[in-house]
Design brief:
78% helix, mainly alpha
Length: 175
């Protein structure tokens, strides 16, 4: 609540601020000399909280989708479908410009870019951010477009990531 309150005062995204703080806390937890057993319990706790909050978020998203269906405009669906390749191209561009400066590799750069571009699932945070817009900010159009991209991401990208990994020849180095 404190992070969300600070984000509100600073006029930045509350959900995004919470994600950033969560990432920082997780990094700090791994750097400390906490007992491995204690660390595992903390991780199980936060994973459980994550699953519960995701269930609540996706339930609320379903209710909002029902509400949006009443005022649905077919052009919004077209815009959403056109947004899918734009989102994938933007992800490829961002990864392509940053991966060469990191140690993140699974084979060659083309393989890494392919996997991370296709495997970059979008979901709850995207919709939460879209829902936080004011109506005069084309909220309905952005929410519907975001829903289309998220549904594509979860259904198409999520269900085809395993065949992509096999096609790219990526294997688990621990086996």
């Amino acid at each position: 609540m404190a992070v969300y309150g600070a984000a509100w005062i600073l006029h930045v995204s509350g959900p995004l601020a919470i994600v950033v703080v969560g990432i920082m806390l997780r990094g700090a937890l791994h750097e400390t000399t906490v007992n491995v057993n204690e660390r595992d319990h903390v991780e199980v706790f936060w994973e459980s909280i994550d699953h519960i909050l995701n269930a609540v978020l996706f339930t609320l998203m379903g209710f909002i989708l029902i509400n949006l269906a009443a005022d649905f405009t077919p052009i919004y669906l077209v815009v959403g479908l056109l947004a899918i390749p734009v989102v994938l191209a933007a992800r490829l561009f961002c990864l392509g410009t940053s991966i060469p400066f990191t140690q993140l590799r699974c084979g060659n750069i083309k393989t890494t870019l392919s996997l991370l571009t296709w495997g970059g699932l979008r979901g709850g945070i995207s919709i939460a951010l879209a829902l936080s817009l004011q109506p005069e900010m084309f909220r309905e159009l952005i929410v519907v477009t975001t829903y289309v991209v998220v549904v594509f991401s979860i259904l198409v990208q999520g269900l085809t990531i395993s065949p992509l990994v096999r096609k790219l020849g990526i294997t688990n180095p621990s086996h």
